[in-house]
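To: structure subgroup
Subject: Chain for Friday's discussion

All,

I'm putting the inputs and outputs inline so they're searchable in the archive.
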Amino acid sequence: LKGLYSNAMQVRHTQEEFVLDFLNLLGQEGTLSSRVIVSPSHFKRIMQAMEENMKRCQAHIAELKKAKK
């Protein structure tokens, strides 16, 4: 499977869809790595899966620090 690196993300939404832009930023320059467009109901399932996985990750790592901007 092919993967792309991303170190930033922007989210926008309308009533019908969520747009997730995954970016690769280096200083003031950046490129769009990938754009994912999903329905609100699918976005909700994504968020639930992310929360569940973060809980599992935190159970194995003592402290997760917030990334510096």
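Points worth raising on Friday:
The two ends are 30 Å apart (CA to CA).
Residues 15 and 40 are 8 Å apart (CA to CA).

D.
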